[in-house]
Design goal:
The chain has helices at 2-12, 28-34, 41-44, 48-54, 59-72, 106-116, 169-182, and strands spanning 14-15, 36-38, 56-57, 77-82, 85-93, 99-104, 145-148, 152-157, 161-165, 202-206, 209-212, 223-226. The protein is an alpha+beta fold and 261 residues long. Helix 1 packs across helix 5, helix 1 (2-12) crosses helix 6 and helix 4 packs across helix 5.
């Protein structure tokens, strides 16, 4: 049943990318990359029923729909983040009593099916131990999200990555301090990140954020930001966290951590 759900979504839902819908300002990829309107990213995203109606969506919308369809078939399922692009986890119970969370990715699966005709490319999506986040809590953010009292204009910032060897911890911390000062990782340290299986024994400086136009926030004085700290291939230790804003005098940041699983 899970494979049938995967194949139906991959065949029938289009990835909402600018190059597929050129000039369409309602395109999901256009909205997130060039700016949207709402309380938050989650406020803007399509619900599963809306994806079915529109027959197109971005990555998190694909996995929300897939999760909803699996649940409708009484198969436990949930979106789970793999870096910035989610996958769908679904519960498998084999006749011999073996149970585990399997995964699939209809969003990436659609792209490969469209380009190569491969209907099984992301089923499963990745090895089970590569899934970044295992939280049951439905409030856990699958994607960086924020919330304001009033709707506002916003723009996603997909961030930057720098990778270092373990003996370069001082350099990694220096780069993080540079980010806190300027909002950027110096160009000579930029990387495309580590491939699957390479994260063990490495240090990574990883940034992610968004832009909000303060001119349209009205009387609102608080922006709540929630984001997952991604852990792949086992235990990942967070050494240091920093934030940057172009109006440091306007911001009093209060940070809270919540651990899950």
């Amino acid at each position: 049943m899970a494979k049938a759900v995967y194949e139906w979504v991959v065949k029938n839902i289009e990835y909402d990318l600018i190059h597929i819908y050129p000039g369409d300002p309602t395109c999901g990829n256009w909205q997130t990359t060039f700016g949207g309107w709402g309380h938050s990213f989650g406020d803007w995203c399509y619900k599963a029923s809306e994806v079915l109606r529109e027959r197109r969506g971005i990555c998190i919308e694909f996995e929300r729909l897939t999760t909803a369809l699996l649940r409708a078939l009484r198969i436990p399922a949930r979106p789970a983040p793999l870096r910035a692009h989610p996958v769908t986890q679904w519960w498998v119970q084999l006749p011999d009593g073996t149970v585990y969370w399997a995964n699939l990715a209809t969003s990436g699966g659609r792209t490969i099916y469209r380009e190569k005709g491969d209907l099984s490319a992301r089923f499963p999506a990745v090895p089970e131990d590569a899934i970044a986040f295992w939280a049951i809590d439905e409030r856990t953010p699958i994607h960086l999200e924020w919330w304001t009292e009033n709707p506002c204009l916003w723009l996603e910032d997909y961030g930057q990555v720098a990778v270092f060897e373990l003996d370069q911890e001082d350099r990694a911390r220096q780069i993080l301090r540079e980010f806190a000062r300027t909002g950027l990782i110096p160009g000579e340290y930029l990387s495309h990140g580590l491939r699957r299986g390479e994260r063990k024994g490495r240090l990574e400086v990883y940034t992610r954020g968004f832009v909000i136009d303060l001119a349209n926030l009205g009387e609102n004085r608080r922006i709540t930001v929630r984001f997952p700290v991604f852990g792949n291939d086992g235990w990942v230790e967070t050494l240091e966290i920093a934030h940057w804003t172009n109006h440091p005098g306007w911001v009093a940041a209060v940070r809270r951590e919540e651990a899950a699983c």
